[in-house]
Design a protein that fits this description.
This protein has 278 residues and is mainly α. It folds into two domains: 122 residues; 138 residues, no CATH class. The chain is built from twelve helices and two strands. A two-stranded antiparallel sheet has the order 1-2. α6 packs across α8, α9 packs across α12 and α11 packs antiparallel against α12.
Length: 278
């Protein structure tokens, strides 16, 4: 469900960006990283639904626009900065729209913004429910303390893995994710280059791949998974190769930590199982 919503949001966002390029070019990049409010709305989308054409900004002086933007931020619970308002005004001055400022263009933009915001709201509520359900599991705190996990990836891992003790060892968990390399040999021949099996859960494979990417981007040299991937990268390995290797290492660590925690807490197997399928 969450993956479908995320895919739909991406498609709608790309469509809105294409439309914005014709009325207010580069507005989607004006706020840096995607800033969201409690509803899951992205700040640039909410801004664009009000200032849907660069002329909506330029009809005001820079002082009046700054005050208008300040009031808008206050109403929508976004942080206001004067230099951001000035940056937006300068962007409007440099923008070259290809669609006119009329009711037809306005209707297109507002409908596109409304559709994207509706999906983002559904995605946000789904994410919150996933996190709530995951928090009921005994291993929740252990998993959420692992680097790379967060309110999306953590619950996704726990949902797909279920009770980790249903796997007889860490290799079985890696195989379930489909990131193990099956043997490829015949007689005296044995391949030195093998693809991952992809025979397990595609949802778990996607979740752990995201975790590995987060670790690779945000982690530091004290993290064993990061060091492992960084070493493979330094050896000249392809991005996909060292990321998959890091994903497998993360799952092995996940298995060890969660299994040990559940054992020490003497948690019954049934109490920790989220998806119930073995």
């Amino acid at each position: 469900m969450y993956e479908r919503l995320a895919s739909t949001a991406t498609s709608l966002r790309n469509g809105l960006i294409a439309l914005a390029d014709q009325t207010f070019p580069s507005i989607d990049q004006a706020f840096g990283h995607a800033i969201k409010n409690a509803d899951g709305h992205e700040k640039w989308v909410d801004f664009f639904s009000i200032y849907w054409h660069r002329d909506c900004v330029l009809r005001l002086s820079i002082e009046k626009f700054t005050e208008s933007y300040r009031k808008w931020c206050l109403r929508r619970n976004y942080k206001f900065r004067t230099n951001t308002a000035h940056k937006l005004y300068a962007l409007a001055q440099d923008a070259v729209p290809t669609l006119p400022k009329n009711n037809g263009t306005k209707a297109l933009v507002l409908q596109a913004c409304k559709s994207l915001n509706a999906v983002c709201e559904a995605k946000q509520s789904t994410q919150e429910e996933m996190n709530r359900l995951a928090s009921l599991l005994p291993e929740y705190e252990v998993v959420m303390q692992m680097e790379g996990t967060g309110p999306i990836t953590g619950p996704a891992l726990m949902a797909e893995i279920g009770d980790v003790r249903r796997f007889k060892n860490k290799k079985a968990l890696v195989a379930f994710a489909g990131i193990d390399a099956p043997p490829f040999q015949s007689g005296n021949f044995e391949s030195k280059s093998r693809h991952v099996s992809k025979r397990g859960s595609p949802h778990l494979r996607r979740a752990v791949f995201l975790v590995a990417n987060i670790i690779l981007t945000l982690s530091h040299k004290d993290n064993s998974v990061f060091c492992f991937m960084d070493k493979k990268r330094a050896e000249g390995k392809h991005y996909y190769v060292y990321t998959i290797a890091g994903s497998a290492k993360f799952l092995r660590i996940y298995y060890a930590r969660v299994t040990e925690y559940l054992r020490t807490q003497e948690i019954p197997v049934a109490a920790s199982c989220l998806n119930g399928n073995s």
